[in-house]
Amino acid sequence: MKRMKATIAYDGSGFAGYQIQLKTRTVQLELLRALKELHKGEPVEVVASGRTDSGVHATGQVIHFDTPFSMPTDSWVRALNVRLPQDIQVYNIEQADADFHARYHAKGKIYRYKWNRGKLINPFSRNHLVHVPQQIDVGRMEKAAQAFIGTHDFSSFCAANTNVVDKVRTIWRIDFEEHGEELHMVIEGSGFLYNMVRIIAGTLLEVGLNRREPEELADIIAACDRDAAGKTAAAHGLYLEKVHY
Amino acid sequence: MKRMKATIAYDGSGFAGYQIQLKTRTVQLELLRALKELHKGEPVEVVASGRTDSGVHATGQVIHFDTPFSMPTDSWVRALNVRLPQDIQVYNIEQADADFHARYHAKGKIYRYKWNRGKLINPFSRNHLVHVPQQIDVGRMEKAAQAFIGTHDFSSFCAANTNVVDKVRTIWRIDFEEHGEELHMVIEGSGFLYNMVRIIAGTLLEVGLNRREPEELADIIAACDRDAAGKTAAAHGLYLEKVHY
Q1: Which helix (H) or strand (E) covers residue B212, if one does?
Q2: pLDDT tens string for chain A (245 positions)?
Q3: Kind of pairing, strands B88-96 and B47-48?
Q4: CA distance B14 to B5
Q5: Does the CB of B134 have a partner CB in chain A at under 8 Å?
Q6: Which residues of B touch A10 (CB under 8 A)?
Q7: Considering only CA atoms, which of A153, A135, A116 is closest in space to residue A229?
Q8: Which of B20, B21, B16, B31 lies closest to B88 in space, CA to CA?
Q9: In this structure, which topology does domain B2-96 adopt according to CATH?
């Protein structure tokens, strides 16, 4: 058996998230179906770097699985993509070390959050950008974001309904990119708690809209209380962009 | 009563075309529903510059309707957009002459056809670009496109199942634009027959893929026979971009 590492992209709009669930369409379900078909009916287990929520997208999710097959990369990519729906596509696949683990070996991740600052909703990106027609002060967001850099207890930025005990994580960088009407927040860190990127995005947006001051962020982090932070930003602005190993 | 002229955009992915039909979701159905709601239950008729097929998009479709209401443009845009689904949005609206007619007064139209030349399908644009991973020779397409310019009988480029008798139309320009992996064909003319842009796009693509010669186009037009032309390109690459009045 060979352990394969694959990089995949998916449009989260049509999925009830990554993880398999009864009676709903999920990314994992489609991956298992495609791999089983390729393996002539034999079930194949798939492990991802982490789950993504309903509506959340990925441009660089990483998965691993074991297979008896040997094929060049191009053949693997083709063999899987013809069996996958067009809203999930494999971008790269390669043989990994036998003990490679997509989740446990992840050393860090990059997420991207996208807002549309246009006056009107764009029908073509309605599921891929979050519409904020109000004036956003990006400089204030950049200033506020500095409070996150480093190692902190991120309890204030974690959905209340989680089982995770250790909420200390390290954020390496938060950058803002302006592409015409689009505003992107790019965040890179060692790991992220449940809803952490979306709560950070929602809280920083409130600073950008002058509803909070940049100076409040340190206190919000120190509070270790979900109620201290801002709203969870909508799922459909979020992209898992890269997993570091 | 005032006659209003509105410019709208829609993502064709979720619609069975523009025109109202029994038991399917169409653009016209959503427009009528939103206008009726705004007019407190009174039905309002809507006339578009023309129909678009199932899956075809619009960035500049034009409609007209009559109303007793007076509002500034911004209020009209807001009042309609909050009542419309996010895959249809009104971009502009203004009072027109009392006899303005979105269909009969159209003097010409611009359509855009979009291909994705990337090696792999992009899950995020799967419904908005047609994937052609093969090498496309754009220079050959540009050369072949010249045969269309001017006034011709376009019977070879009209779906066979049409009632239209006069198939003479004038094409003013066909331009190709390359935006990274995207290839766009922009076509502007006095009017277009049923499926005409898609058959032109499909035939020119065959030239770009070296399956036809640019010199064949004049004969294909002269044949006045649908079977002489190439395949009808997929609906989801097509955008109605502008209507001239």
Answers
A1: none
A2: 999 999 999 999 999 999 998 889 999 999 999 999 999 999 999 999 999 999 999 999 999 999 999 999 999 999 999 999 999 999 999 999 999 999 999 999 999 999 999 999 999 999 999 999 999 999 999 999 999 999 999 999 998 877 888 999 999 999 999 999 999 999 999 999 999 999 999 999 999 999 999 999 999 999 999 999 999 999 999 999 999 99
A3: unpaired
A4: 24
A5: no
A6: 123
A7: A153
A8: B31
A9: Alpha-Beta Plaits (3.30.70)
CATH architecture of the domain formed by B108-244:
2-Layer Sandwich (3.30)
Query: By CA distance, what is B119's nearest residue in A?
Result: A91
Q: Does B124 touch chain A (CB under 8 A)?
A: yes
- Who among A81, A122, A128 is closest to B120 (CB)? A81
Q: Could you give the CA distance from residue B33 to residue B27 in angstroms, rounded to a whole number?
A: 10
Name beta bridge partners: B4: B65, B95
Residue type, B116: N
Within chain B, all domains assigned CATH 3.30.70.660 are found at 108-244
Task: Output the six-digit token pair for B166.
Answer: 């006069």
